[in-house]
Design goal:
alpha+beta; 4 strands; plasmid; Uncharacterised_Ca-bd_CcbP; Calcium-binding protein
Length: 103
């Protein structure tokens, strides 16, 4: 990762967590940014199967998850486990910022 990429991610992290006092509030801050900026739906592959990412959710365990759909099959998976497609959907930088913050 280049210094400019790190700086861009740090700026996004700062924006998402600006008024947060603990990790729980930070997760909620990232959820809010993802909900506002990640353009849905988009296609990706999960375990070799093409799915449509149709929604985003904040679980009771304070994990950010996406809702993946294929036909009548629906499954929530942690956004940390979501393989992002190429080209990236608009707003995907917020997924990367969340992953960066968790490291």
């Amino acid at each position: 990762m280049t210094p400019s990429n790190r700086a861009a991610l740090a700026a996004l992290v700062a924006e998402a967590t600006v008024d947060c006092y603990n990790d729980s509030e930070c997760v909620t801050g990232f959820y809010t940014m993802l909900d506002e900026h990640l353009v849905l739906p988009f296609q990706t592959f999960v375990s070799g199967t093409e799915v449509t990412v149709s929604g985003i959710d904040l679980t009771a365990e304070e994990c950010i998850a996406v809702i993946c759909v294929r036909g009548q099959w629906r499954q929530r998976i942690p956004i940390l486990d979501l393989p992002l497609p190429t080209p990236l959907p608009a707003g995907a930088q917020w997924v990367e910022a969340y992953r960066h913050w968790l490291r």
